[in-house]
Amino acid sequence: MHMHTIDIIIILMYMMAIVTAGLMISKRAGKNIKSYFLGGNRIPWYYLGVANASGMFDITGTMWMVTLLFIYGLKSAWIPWLWPTFNQIVLMVYLSVWLRRSNVMTGAEWMITRFGYGTGAELSHISVVFFALASAIGFLAYAFQGIGKFAAIFFPWDFTPDTYAVIFMSITTAYIILGGIYSVVLTDIIQFLLMTVSSVAIAIIAISRTSAEAISAVVPDGWHNLFFGWKLDLDWTGLIDSVNTKIATDGYSLFGIFFMMVLFKGVLASMAGPTPNYDMQKILSTRSPRESALMSWCATTVLFIPRYLLIAGTGVLALVYFKGSALDAMGSALDFEQILPYVINNFLPVGLVGLVLAGLLAAFMSTFDGTVNAGASYMVNDIYKRYINPRASEKRYVVMSYFASILIVVVGISFGFMTESINSVLQWIVAGLYGGYIAPNLLKWHWWRLNGHGYFGGMIAGIVAALAFPVILPDMSALTSFPFILLLSVLASILVSLLTPPDSEETLKSFYRQVRPWGFWGPILAKVQQDDQDFERNTSFKRDAVNVAVGIVWQLLMFVIPIYLVIREYSSLWIAVVLLALTSVFLKRNWYNKLEKE
């Protein structure tokens, strides 16, 4: 792809700006490790919310959703529930508040709040540290491959993808080391603004260069319909025949069953809480439990409309123009990764190309910087400070944070160079690690009897089961195997907990008083009330459940409104806008107005 000098200058100016930003705020981050990793809990929630949204604006995931929109139309809005995207709603409604009340620095340190000290607590702590570092390194290896291929497609210099990856990761590492969480937040905000401008620009171009009639002429019946029955009922025969093969390969033909399984898995995964990554770190960085909830609300509010403007704009331009040219020539070797280069190369003017590429590059770097900073916090706070040098000075901890950030990046890049094994590494992370995460982390909030041994047992059982199923039953999909993995993990958590002594009464009482979760805490509630007769249990379960249900609809509307706008489905657009207003008013009254004032 040929780039104009102006576009190259814009990209270079962006790179210089973010490194300069890291230099400017390095002194503020260097006070102590709490400042370095959590900003001293002084960063306003709206800054953290925008930064968190930027971290979730992953361009690889975004381009996957462009593919989904291209193939499945409006029904593609349901498929990201696989992650699940609505976990932010659960965090917003109540779980961010519960997590922030712990006043800790990392998810592993949170284990002390829940399980106290002792062998079981140590095992639970170690398991979370391992999970956090393994997933961080795996995602950095994934980012290495992604950013290298991305840069090699767009940039004019004759470098290999690996060389591009090393260059951009080194630049990003420089400003992370200099400014810690302050650099992450500041540059993430800049990156999000760039990405938003790029998204709006592409959506405007798509609206001006296409028409509703032109879109309808190249998509099958049902493509415009958000709702579905048991079967998908999208037939691309005569339009792009090979897309039917893609649908069958994806396994979404029986869409009703797929939806029920995704909803079941998504609800449980959301209630388990965030994994120990940049999302959890942003929650722990907020100034109060109330602001942690507002931060999650902000991340949801600002993320999806700009992101889906980009998705809809790119997808529509590809349908109308790319479909009729290079895409048809590919035949069965359909390559959706060529959609974005095609749109940028053929529809964007000089100057805007540089801005959009800077924005797309920023999307990679935003996920990368949050992952590095979160991973380093576990190395310093949960390994070095806890086990190696617990009495070191704050300056020493900050210096170790620099080395930890560099080490995580070096290891991540090393795994990235192993191109033959990266897929297996990612499969292990997604299927293995995450397969074992849900059950024990769900129980830790809601069942008093889960102890550190049970938590560790549930994690190990889930991971082993998730790794064994593809070997024992290779034809079973990850989604189909989820209920079985969940069952084994739950049984292991419960049995190991019941076969080992409960955690100390004082630890459980302290956790319950401090975090105040709802769930099966009757024996602990009784003991707490013996000490404090005025203490009242959390009775907000029904309200939280209603708010989560309404919030999921509210979030889904922010997915579909940009799509309806770009494809000119104005009647559906206005219905969605009215529903968005109604759900917003409901959440204002039933969630925001009742959000605790701390």
Descriptive account of the structure:
This protein has 25 helices and no strands. It has a domain at 5-25 and 44-419: Sodium/glucose cotransporter. The chain is mostly helical and 598 residues long. The chain is 75% helix and 0% strand. Helix 4 (45-56) packs parallel to helix 14 (289-322), helix 19 (422-446) packs antiparallel against helix 20 (452-472) and helix 20 (452-472) runs antiparallel to helix 21 (478-499). Mean pLDDT is 85; it is low at 420-425.
Keywords:
598 residues, mainly alpha, Sodium/glucose cotransporter, 25 helices, 75% helix, 0% strand, globular
Summed up:
This protein is mainly α and 598 residues long.
Q: Which CATH first-tier class of the domain at 5-25 and 44-419 would you pick?
A: Mainly Alpha
Shape assignment: globular
CATH topology name of the domain at 5-25 and 44-419 = Sodium/glucose cotransporter
Overall residue-averaged pLDDT value: 85
* CATH architectural label of the domain at 5-25 and 44-419: Up-down Bundle
Rg calc: 24 Å
Label the structural class: mainly alpha
Output the CATH homologous superfamily of the domain at 5-25 and 44-419. Answer: Sodium/glucose cotransporter
Number of helix segments? 25
Oligomer: single chain
The portion of residues forming beta strands comes to: under 5%
Order of helices and strands: HHHHHHHHHHHHHHHHHHHHHHHHH
Q: Give a quick account of the main beta sheet: strands, pairing sense, barrel closure.
A: none
Low-confidence stretches: 420-425
Helix content: over 70%
* Number of beta strands: 0
Query: Gap between N and C termini, in Å?
Result: 54 Å
